[in-house]
Write a structure and sequence with these properties.
CATH class: Mainly Alpha
Number of helices: 6
Distance between the termini: 30 Å
CATH topology: Four Helix Bundle (Hemerythrin (Met), subunit A)
Strand content: under 5%
Order of helices and strands: HHHHHH
Largest sheet: none
Radius of gyration: 17 Å
Oligomer: single chain
Structural class: mainly alpha
Length: 152
């Protein structure tokens, strides 16, 4: 087995595809949530928290000396920072950013696309990453999985 999870998709690319697809469908088939600006502005905290989560998780990985890309070998098991609360804080952060953008754009289309995004990550990325990390880090990763939830 090569030293990487063997995933076939790239999570940021999936994020961009979902973002563009939902934007296109929202343009042609608008489905607004609510009119008040204050409700739309709720998207800003989602995006702020999501971005902070991604940046913190990436920082933890770099500090541990491991690769951020799931296409490269894991050099260390990262369990600090946001990884204390979620095994996938980068994917959670991307999802929160997407939800925030959906609220700002005032479209209900973000809901099914957010669910599709999470489903795609779970079945096409996370599943393979977890098998790889369990093979690579063994009991240490299994104990980590037992105490930290996948998403939140």
């Amino acid at each position: 087995m090569e030293d990487h999870p063997g995933i076939k998709v790239t999570p940021p690319l999936v994020f961009l595809i979902v973002l563009v697809a939902s934007g296109v469908i929202s343009f042609f088939v608008p489905m607004p949530i609510l009119k008040p600006l204050w409700f739309r502005l709720l998207g800003l905290p989602f995006m702020g928290f999501g971005s902070a989560l991604v940046l913190s998780a990436v920082g933890q990985m770099r500090q541990a000396g491991t690769h951020v890309s799931p296409h490269l070998p894991a050099k260390a098991l990262v369990t600090g920072g946001p990884y204390r609360f979620s095994r996938n804080p980068i994917y959670l952060g991307l999802t929160l950013n997407y939800v925030g953008l959906g609220l700002l754009a005032n479209t209900l289309w973000f809901l099914p696309f957010a669910i599709g995004f999470m489903f795609t990550l779970q079945t096409q990325v996370i599943r393979f990453e977890e098998i790889y990390l369990e093979d690579k880090f063994g009991t240490e990763y299994c104990r980590y999985k037992d105490r930290v939830p996948r998403w939140f």
